[in-house]
Amino acid sequence: MDYFRAIYLANERSPRSLQLTAEAIQLNPGNYTVWQFRRVVLEALAVDLHEELKFVDRIAGDNSKNYQIWHHRRWLAEKLGADAVTNELEFTKKIFSQDAKNYHAWSHRQWVLQALGGWEDELAYCQQLLEDDIYNNSAWNQRYFVVTRSPLLGGLAAMRESEVKYTVQAIRASPENESPWRYLRGLYKNDTQSLVEDSQAASVLLDVLTSKNSHVHALSLLLDLLCHGFEPSQELRSAIDVLTPESCSPDLALTKRISSILEHADPTRVKYWNWRKSTTPVQSAQCQNTDRLANLSMQ
Amino acid sequence: MGELLVEKHAKYIITVEKRKDDFESVVMEHLRLNGAYWGLTTLDIMGKLGAVEQDEVISWVMQCQHESGGFGGNIGHDPHLLYTLSAIQVLALFDKLHVLDIDKVSNYIAGLQNEDGSFSGDIWGEVDTRFSYISILSLTLLHRLDKIDVGKAVKYIISCKNVDGGFGCTPGAESHAGQIFCCVAALAITGSLHHVDKDLLGWWLCERQVKSGGLNGRPEKLPDVCCSCDIVISISKSVMSFIDSHVVASQVCYSWWVLSSLIMIDRVHWIDKGKLVQFILDCQDKENGGISDRPDDAVDVFHTYFGVAGLSLLEYPGIKPIDPAYALPVDVVNRVMLGR
């Protein structure tokens, strides 16, 4: 480190400096000053940046959560331009094969797609990751990113039908998984009415609520839909009847009963469900509760 | 139910701050200013700041300043926003902000704002909503928020809002508790919380509490075993290399990020506070002091800070209240902002 200090202070931009930064980085890849000086030297020496990528590959193997490496990689990809796309997408894939939720790698991948392209196989890749682990929230997020931002797919409106179909399947497979429920809401961003009218949503609610699985997310969505004028079928009403605790009066409004079931089923968040109960109207339609679904926000 | 071992934690922090030669210090060397902020803020919350050699710390902090006005993580390191905020916070703790050339520091920070309102962390240009928070907080503490385009800064943060109500590091990036803290705090400081869907985000945040009482950082498969600090969005950029060296999974840090966010949007009563207090207390090293990421793991200053700060947010008796947006004791914030 003392040698590094010396060349750094002397601002010496030589092959020897490059070698010393490599050694210092191997010693501590988190030292951002060394990385920054290395970029200065690389620029001054006009080194072949493909060689530099190989160097980063070697370091990144054991340090995939180090900010400096990702930053350095982006700097390289920016310099290499479209040439870098395949390599960078493959590199992040390799990282995801060990850690599918690596935040840095996802951030890098999104940047590559937007800045340099390579969208062609991205939806299929999300599909593959979700097949490996349907709970991978990063993959769900990436799926939404692709569906809403890919220049090749026509946007959310064009993709909605097929995406709802996929999401509903994922919910059936694991109703306790928070991610697809949120994804489903996201697909109807700024268009709650269509969600209320979607027969696939109604059907998955019935399936989950009549199964032995966790009912929390289904009940929560049902509560929201009821607030927006959803008319539940007789079967769905019966399913709620079955789940209603004995302590609860059967004459109570459907929305109130659903809140009571949630208070029992999810005691950690009893106060949240209690608040939902207090802000939910007795009759469906017109929710005084902040317009939760409609406000699913601009991005 | 155990209690917070104030004396032991204070002793632990002072010992770590003094260490210069062991392995942990070498790996931490480049982010020592972050470490100083964590350690000293924890001491102050516990009423133990007097145990530190104030002049020595201030003189060292000032030696970390670069001619550009920004601060490096240690003497001789390049400047970065992360350490510039830590320097300002440490000086604020000691009521010594006047030793700074305020305009020089604030010009450095303001110079890192980009055309779209976002901020880069340093001259190399990495953009992240963490840096928006850091810039806004730093300039607020220096009373120089007028040096940046606040409207554009807010607009950029809102562009990182997701359909689940949370925020990511850039537009379209996954919501994560650490990133949400940065964005919500920046919006709180600039009086822009009306842009947050409080009920939706509050629900997402309270879903982070798991059976043990602890919190995770985002939805995942096995909340009780695989929460990870790996995505430490913290105030620290390079702490990763340190954390990764001995921590695989973590939860205590989320007590700070999730809790402070819930408080800022006025929804903290939606979680089970008693269980969370117990969880944090269970992560204490009862022999030697310090708090770990989860019960029975190795302690570090980073988690000791997040644990104690989390307890402070939970109004644990006998320690000072900490401000959820400024990440400094409330009395320090009042002194800096209101001159009290």
Q: Tell me the number of helical segments of chain A per DSSP (H or I, 4 or more residues long).
A: 17
Radius of gyration of chain B over alpha carbons?
18 Å
Mean pLDDT of chain B: 88
Described by strand count, sense and barrel closure, the largest sheet of chain A is: none
Query: Taking all residues together, what is the mean pLDDT of chain A?
Result: 90
Sequence stretches where pLDDT stays below 50 over 5 or more residues of chain B: 223-250
Q: How many domain units of chain B?
A: 1
Work out the helicity level of chain A.
55-70%
Derived from helix and strand composition plus strand pairing, the structural class of chain B reads mainly alpha
Keywords, please?
heterodimer; A: 299 residues; mainly alpha; disordered C terminus; B: 340 residues; Glycosyltransferase; two-stranded antiparallel sheet; 2 strands; 48% helix
Report on the architecture of this protein.
Chain B: One of its GO terms (molecular function) is Rab geranylgeranyltransferase activity. Chain B: Heterotrimer composed of the alpha subunit RGTA, the beta subunit RGTB and REP; within this trimer, RGTA and RGTB form the catalytic component, while REP mediates peptide substrate binding. Chain B: This is Geranylgeranyl transferase type-2 subunit beta. Chain B: Keywords: Metal-binding, Prenyltransferase, Repeat, Transferase, Zinc. The complex is a heterodimer of chains A (299) and B (340). Chain A is mainly α and 299 residues long. Chain A has a domain at 1-47. Chain A has helices at residues 2-10, 15-27, 32-45, 49-60, 67-80, 85-98, 103-116, 122-132, 137-149, 155-173, 178-187, 192-197, 199-209, 216-227, 234-243, 254-265, 270-279. Chain A is elongated and about 85 Å long. The model of chain A is unreliable at 284-291 and 294-299 (pLDDT under 50). The longest helix of chain B is centred in the N-terminal third of the chain and has 14 residues, at 32-45. Chain B is mainly α and 340 residues long. Chain B starts with 5 loop residues before the first helix and ends with a helix. Chain B has 15 helices and two strands. Chain B has a single domain (6-338), classed as Glycosyltransferase, CATH 1.50.10.20. Chain B has a two-stranded antiparallel sheet with strand order 1-2. Chains A and B meet through helix 3, helix 5, helix 7, helix 9 and helix 11 of A and helix 10 and helix 11 of B.
